[in-house]
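Example record

The entry below shows one chain as it appears in the dataset: sequence first, then structure tokens.
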Amino acid sequence: MGSTPFEVTLFFTYILYSKRFNRFYIGHSQDIDVRLDFHNDGHVKSTKPFLPWEMVGFIEKRKRSEAAVLERKLKNLNTKHLKKFILKYFNKSFM
């Protein structure tokens, strides 16, 4: 029959990790798989020097503005607090 008129577009705030450089990157996107490939293909100036990147985790939001607000909050965390956030919400440790 086709797509439902109530189809919801989701946005994702994501956290990437460069094991080689022990660095995190936080961003938001509608398609995290495409975005991860974009980062790993070297198309993002701020992440290109730290390839490769792996997905640590992501959080779904219904509005782009909500994803952007969460991105900003996560970017304002120091590394110690970001690692605690990752452990709590994604059960991954980078200690």
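Notes for this example: Strands lie at 11-18, 23-29, 54-61. Residues 42 and 48 are 5 Å apart (CA to CA).
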